[in-house]
Amino acid sequence: MRVVLMAGGSGTRLRPLTCDLPKPMVPVVNRPIAEHILNLLRSHGLDDVVMTLHYLPDVVRDYFGDGSEFGVHLSYVVEEEQPLGTAGSVKNIAHLLADPFLVVSGDSITDVNLSEAIRFHHQHRAPVTLILARVSNPKEFGIVFTDEEGRIRRFLEKPSAGEVFTDTVNTGMYLLSPTVMDYLSGGTERDFSRDLFPLLLQADVPMYGYITDAYWCDVGSLQTYQQVQRDALYGRVQLDIQGTEVQPRVWVGRNTTLPQDIQLEDPIVLGNNCRLGAGVTLAAGTVLSDNVIVGNGSQLRGVVAWNGVFVGDDSHLEHCILARHVHVDRHVTLNEGVIVGTRSVIGEEASLSQGVRLWPGKRIEPGAIVNESLIWGTTGQRYLFGQRGVAGVANVDITPEFAVRLAAAYASTLEPGTSVLVSRDQRSVSRMVAHALMSGLMSVGIHVLNLEAIALPIARFAAQTLSVSGGIHVRAHPDRADQLLIEFFDHKGINLSRARERQIETAYFREDIRRVILRDVGTMAQPNNSVAAYAQGFEKWLNTKLFYGNPAKIVIDYAYAVSGVVLPQILNKFGCDAVVLNATLHPTPLNILERQRLLRELGQVVTALSASLGVQVSANGERLTLVDNSGAVVSDQELTALMTYLVLLTHPGSTVAVPVTTSSAVETIAQQLGGHILRTRTNPTDLMEACQHHSGVVLGGAAETGFIFPQLHPGFDAMFTIATLIEMLALIGKPLTAIRQELPKVHYHHRAIRCPWIAKGSLMRHLVETQPRAHLNLIDGVKIGDPNTNNWILVLPDASEPLVHLYVNSHDAAWNEQMLHRYTHRIEQFARLETVADAKI
């Protein structure tokens, strides 16, 4: 069987180690990743290998030659002009593949039993077999769901937290029949997971998954690179380690001698021709390649040093990586997580702080204390974006320095000379961070339209009317009083897609920031008509005649938080009597108890004034809490049902888009009134896109996120919600208390349950595997429903915390309580078992 070894990867997430080295050539225990793969292939009798190359192909060819030295026959195909993707590169050599063949990724370390996988493939006589593995955190991989016979039923590339329905992932190893490549056209970039496999699934071509319990690790980041070294040293993966095992788990290469006073802590690996000084300490996890020199008295703990590294006397190195020919002088301190690129020089008594990365060829002056990476930025975070933006503790995680780098990374993904609007709430810390963001944008040649302090719905509306590439808004986090939230949106006002967020993360973590010369630095302008334009758009989509004919009295509580009191001015213009409470800015966001106190006061004012309704506006103008004409607070789920009822009553036959977490009351209402319900994922971006891309949607969102009226703009807007609510009440001619009596009664509970990250994927798989397929809905999380009723249970992993959210919905209170208790116990027990099992490993 011929093997296609895809070795064209540039390994951007492994930079600076891969700035001048292809990813498959990165050494693991002193052998390139690709060499470990060839050893595995040869051990299973697979010696006919075609390598596909793109990035620095000569480095690979010069090392492996014709493959005879490694016991295989090697040929090469180089993608000269552009990378063709995993499937495109194989399609490019389809003429060389007349028989079933094996595709292997050159980016991973594994000891999978390929002979068993091939037998599985032949037994099922399938055109496609994917080799699958189970991992504790599947978010960074393509997840695959198989049935009891091993046939693949669903897969998803790099899912969000809510889309993790199994912990079984694609390893990038496939057994394929040549005929399946006919589904692709040649000469274009194509991916197996994103392009070919969905086509085959749609065409009902049988695809099977061989699930291996062997070791598999995609060396996709610097953290996993260090982890795979440790796993090899501790025998968790079976690799051929060069050298003589002079004592248990201590391997020493040719012409390397150990001084009598050396202190060794296994496991360690020493390459050929190493020179170690007197009193050297080498602690567990240390891997020294060939020709490494370590001076007297130096201490290396968990250090990976490539070929030709020099370390001077009395230096202290902790869990760091040194690329080829790095020179570390005397009395140097390199802290945990430091990565040093090829041929860099670190002067005497210099100190590099935790996580610092140096690109190749950098020189650190003697005595320097380096706290940041060269060229720009640190890499302490693995992900930047959460559920709806970049969040962090104000002035601790979200600092001015961080904001400058974040904005520069974002701007580097845009065309130079384009414009971005920047807005914020009125808090001082938001102003500080917004100014830093504007500096970062301008430094990359982007023009800034500074809207200053303004409600977020107005900023989203402005994005549609101004000629901008996108926008950034800074505000206090709506759910966490000590945090800031930085949200990015496109030229339509829609939050960025996950693909765009990944582009920004890639630019940030690669520290690949575009800089411009002096004359191309961006400019700043301050548009002064954004509020007026929003008010005009606001008026355009309201039936103002209803306002004049039915003057309403409402009470609006701004809870000391919202930027700009725009709504009362608009409503007063139409004859409404709007009473405003707490419109001044509070220095810090209110806590839950303070907001509840203000809600009670709001209810008292509503009844005292005999107002039609009261509202408390939050989340910088996005959300609202409703108080009816009796002064009673309307719950979130009831508010969503109420808005659905009013919209479908006044817009017959229309569609309402709601997240999967919304109660089934909306379906009952839609059935009664002849409307339609569109369920989406809970991610705000998905809600925004659904409202824009599905015709007939007149309302989107829920009370927990805010409501969207797509005719005005694509974002959540509490102000327009209030005005539309007044309009619909005037049209129906009933008070809120009467309408609430007409809403269906649904028992609905939500509970957040602690669940370690390592258990989330396996929990989702367990739930999917233990339920009939007809009962499952996998839009977001795992939703288990009764086909004959509107009863359901939803288990949704949290995107940023070690939690899962349990939602239970039913018209039967007893059933609701029973399922809430049963699934809470089931999740807690499963999480404990998985955590214990992981600890034993």
TrEMBL record:
<dbReference type="InterPro" id="IPR050486">
    <property type="entry name" value="Mannose-1P_guanyltransferase"/>
</dbReference>
<feature type="domain" description="Alpha-D-phosphohexomutase alpha/beta/alpha">
    <location>
        <begin position="636"/>
        <end position="745"/>
    </location>
</feature>
<dbReference type="Pfam" id="PF00483">
    <property type="entry name" value="NTP_transferase"/>
</dbReference>
<dbReference type="Pfam" id="PF02878">
    <property type="entry name" value="PGM_PMM_I"/>
</dbReference>
<dbReference type="GO" id="GO:0016779">
    <property type="term" value="F:nucleotidyltransferase activity"/>
</dbReference>
<dbReference type="InterPro" id="IPR018357">
    <property type="entry name" value="Hexapep_transf_CS"/>
</dbReference>
<dbReference type="InterPro" id="IPR016055">
    <property type="entry name" value="A-D-PHexomutase_a/b/a-I/II/III"/>
</dbReference>
<keyword id="KW-0548">Nucleotidyltransferase</keyword>
<dbReference type="GO" id="GO:0031470">
    <property type="term" value="C:carboxysome"/>
</dbReference>
<feature type="domain" description="Nucleotidyl transferase">
    <location>
        <begin position="3"/>
        <end position="231"/>
    </location>
</feature>
<feature type="domain" description="Alpha-D-phosphohexomutase alpha/beta/alpha">
    <location>
        <begin position="533"/>
        <end position="631"/>
    </location>
</feature>
<keyword id="KW-0597">Phosphoprotein</keyword>
<keyword id="KW-0963">Cytoplasm</keyword>
<keyword id="KW-0677">Repeat</keyword>
<dbReference type="InterPro" id="IPR005845">
    <property type="entry name" value="A-D-PHexomutase_a/b/a-II"/>
</dbReference>
<dbReference type="GO" id="GO:0043886">
    <property type="term" value="F:structural constituent of carboxysome shell"/>
</dbReference>
<dbReference type="Pfam" id="PF25084">
    <property type="entry name" value="LbH_EIF2B"/>
</dbReference>
<dbReference type="InterPro" id="IPR056764">
    <property type="entry name" value="LbH_EIF2B3/5"/>
</dbReference>
<dbReference type="InterPro" id="IPR011004">
    <property type="entry name" value="Trimer_LpxA-like_sf"/>
</dbReference>
<protein>
    <submittedName>
        <fullName>Mannose-1-phosphate guanylyltransferase</fullName>
    </submittedName>
</protein>
<dbReference type="InterPro" id="IPR005835">
    <property type="entry name" value="NTP_transferase_dom"/>
</dbReference>
<feature type="domain" description="Alpha-D-phosphohexomutase alpha/beta/alpha">
    <location>
        <begin position="384"/>
        <end position="512"/>
    </location>
</feature>
<feature type="domain" description="EIF2B subunit epsilon/gamma LbH">
    <location>
        <begin position="250"/>
        <end position="351"/>
    </location>
</feature>
<keyword id="KW-0648">Protein biosynthesis</keyword>
<dbReference type="GO" id="GO:0005975">
    <property type="term" value="P:carbohydrate metabolic process"/>
</dbReference>
<dbReference type="GO" id="GO:0016868">
    <property type="term" value="F:intramolecular phosphotransferase activity"/>
</dbReference>
<dbReference type="Pfam" id="PF02879">
    <property type="entry name" value="PGM_PMM_II"/>
</dbReference>
<dbReference type="InterPro" id="IPR036900">
    <property type="entry name" value="A-D-PHexomutase_C_sf"/>
</dbReference>
<dbReference type="InterPro" id="IPR029044">
    <property type="entry name" value="Nucleotide-diphossugar_trans"/>
</dbReference>
<dbReference type="InterPro" id="IPR005844">
    <property type="entry name" value="A-D-PHexomutase_a/b/a-I"/>
</dbReference>
<keyword id="KW-0808">Transferase</keyword>
<dbReference type="InterPro" id="IPR005846">
    <property type="entry name" value="A-D-PHexomutase_a/b/a-III"/>
</dbReference>
<keyword id="KW-0396">Initiation factor</keyword>
<comment type="similarity">
    <text>Belongs to the phosphohexose mutase family.</text>
</comment>
<dbReference type="Pfam" id="PF02880">
    <property type="entry name" value="PGM_PMM_III"/>
</dbReference>
